[in-house]
Design a protein that fits this description.
The chain contains 7 helices and 2 strands. By secondary structure, it is mainly alpha-helical. α2 runs parallel beside α4 and α5 packs across α7. It holds the Pfam family ECF_trnsprt.
Length: 207
């Protein structure tokens, strides 16, 4: 448990730092930016279990609330989609703890996050954004998509054309990086756990 708490805290700190690094992506509206803050959550889900991935996602967004520029709506959306991603990936990996299982989990999690992003954005995120920043006029948001593609003249169409591929791409990028660094990180955590165990046993013997 000491190891899990320590690793959770470390991964949360990394996730918070990565949340501030946003990369604009061509051919999508400017408010859609790529960040890698889901990566530590994904690693946590693989190494510690899906529940820890969700905890890291929750802590990251709670700590980010005081500097929120979206009236907390962005953090809520980030938590919901991030939690879906790491939960699906983590659950699948738990039943198949191999590199193939991790890859399948990542891809399934990315697809689940992409599909459900339509639901959360359509019914929750964008209506709240429109109410806060555009007096409830959803056309203000739709027009930002139409500047890139005139045929995206409804919110639903815009989400399917732009947000689904963007969210899927984001999940796949996180998955690729996770596959690269997972094994070295996992080995490090095993060593940490061994060190904690030896320290605990040593104290027990002295007692």
């Amino acid at each position: 448990m000491t190891t899990k708490i320590t690793v959770t805290a470390l991964l949360t700190a990394v996730a918070i730092a990565l949340q501030y690094i946003e990369v604009p992506i061509p051919l999508v509206p400017s408010f859609l930016k790529l960040d890698f803050s889901d990566l530590p959550e994904l690693i946590g889900a693989f190494v510690l279990g899906p529940q820890y991935g969700i905890i890291i996602c929750l802590l990251k967004n709670l700590i980010h609330l005081p500097v929120s520029s979206s009236m907390f709506v962005g953090e809520f959306s980030n938590f919901i989609l991030g939690a879906i991603f790491v939960f699906v990936a983590g659950i699948i990996y738990q039943y198949n703890k191999t590199k193939k299982g991790a890859l399948i989990g990542c891809v399934a999690g990315a697809f689940a996050m992409a599909v459900l992003s339509v639901v959360t954005n359509y019914f929750i995120v964008y209506p709240v954004y429109a109410e806060l920043w555009a007096g409830g006029d959803m056309n203000v948001i739709v027009n930002m998509y139409k500047l890139l593609l005139p045929s995206s003249d409804t919110l639903l169409k815009s989400l399917i054309i732009f947000n689904v591929p963007f969210t899927l791409f984001k999940g796949i990028v996180d998955a690729v990086i996770a596959m690269i660094i997972y094994k070295p990180l996992s080995n490090m955590i095993v060593r940490m756990n061994t060190a904690f165990t030896k320290k605990r046993d040593s104290k027990a013997e002295k007692a």
